[in-house]
């Protein structure tokens, strides 16, 4: 089952929302319907804005407070706050198609074939 499908077979028992995966349904129930549950956040030390994920806070600090742009285009020198913006720039502005990583689906990561033998990771 892919994540780009349109059906949402996991309905929330508490509201009208439905989800593509059981994990996302569980996260929704915990975050939205569990009394007293507070979503963990990361606060910006400069402006106290809150982010659910640390990488989003890091990008915010670079973009808003420090102006740091550590991801630099090797074609034109333009800098970016996040690596994904650099990848989009390379593809759109310069026509550079980056190699996709050889990744195993999560369910296949446990057992990897190496030649004749199976290696459990």
UniProtKB/TrEMBL annotation:
<feature type="compositionally biased region" description="Basic residues">
    <location>
        <begin position="103"/>
        <end position="112"/>
    </location>
</feature>
<keyword id="KW-0539">Nucleus</keyword>
<dbReference type="Pfam" id="PF00096">
    <property type="entry name" value="zf-C2H2"/>
</dbReference>
<dbReference type="GO" id="GO:0000978">
    <property type="term" value="F:RNA polymerase II cis-regulatory region sequence-specific DNA binding"/>
</dbReference>
<keyword id="KW-0479">Metal-binding</keyword>
<dbReference type="GO" id="GO:0008270">
    <property type="term" value="F:zinc ion binding"/>
</dbReference>
<feature type="domain" description="C2H2-type">
    <location>
        <begin position="10"/>
        <end position="34"/>
    </location>
</feature>
<comment type="similarity">
    <text>Belongs to the snail C2H2-type zinc-finger protein family.</text>
</comment>
<protein>
    <submittedName>
        <fullName>Zinc finger protein 37</fullName>
    </submittedName>
</protein>
<feature type="domain" description="C2H2-type">
    <location>
        <begin position="42"/>
        <end position="70"/>
    </location>
</feature>
<dbReference type="GO" id="GO:0005634">
    <property type="term" value="C:nucleus"/>
</dbReference>
<dbReference type="InterPro" id="IPR013087">
    <property type="entry name" value="Znf_C2H2_type"/>
</dbReference>
<keyword id="KW-0863">Zinc-finger</keyword>
<feature type="domain" description="C2H2-type">
    <location>
        <begin position="71"/>
        <end position="94"/>
    </location>
</feature>
<keyword id="KW-0677">Repeat</keyword>
<dbReference type="GO" id="GO:0000981">
    <property type="term" value="F:DNA-binding transcription factor activity, RNA polymerase II-specific"/>
</dbReference>
<dbReference type="InterPro" id="IPR036236">
    <property type="entry name" value="Znf_C2H2_sf"/>
</dbReference>
<keyword id="KW-0862">Zinc</keyword>
<dbReference type="InterPro" id="IPR050527">
    <property type="entry name" value="Snail/Krueppel_Znf"/>
</dbReference>
<feature type="region of interest" description="Disordered">
    <location>
        <begin position="97"/>
        <end position="121"/>
    </location>
</feature>
């Amino acid at each position: 089952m892919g994540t780009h499908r349109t059906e949402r077979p996991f309905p929330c028992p508490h509201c009208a929302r439905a989800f593509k995966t059981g994990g996302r349904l569980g996260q929704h129930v915990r975050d939205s319907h569990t009394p007293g549950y507070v979503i963990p956040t990361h606060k910006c030390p400069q402006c106290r804005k809150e982010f659910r994920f640390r990488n989003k806070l890091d990008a915010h600090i670079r973009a808003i407070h420090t102006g740091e742009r550590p991801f630099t285009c090797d074609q034109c020198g333009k800098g970016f706050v996040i690596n994904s913006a650099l990848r989009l720039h390379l593809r759109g502005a310069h026509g550079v198609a980056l190699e996709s990583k050889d990744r195993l689906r999560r369910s296949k990561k446990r057992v990897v074939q190496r030649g004749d033998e199976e290696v459990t990771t």
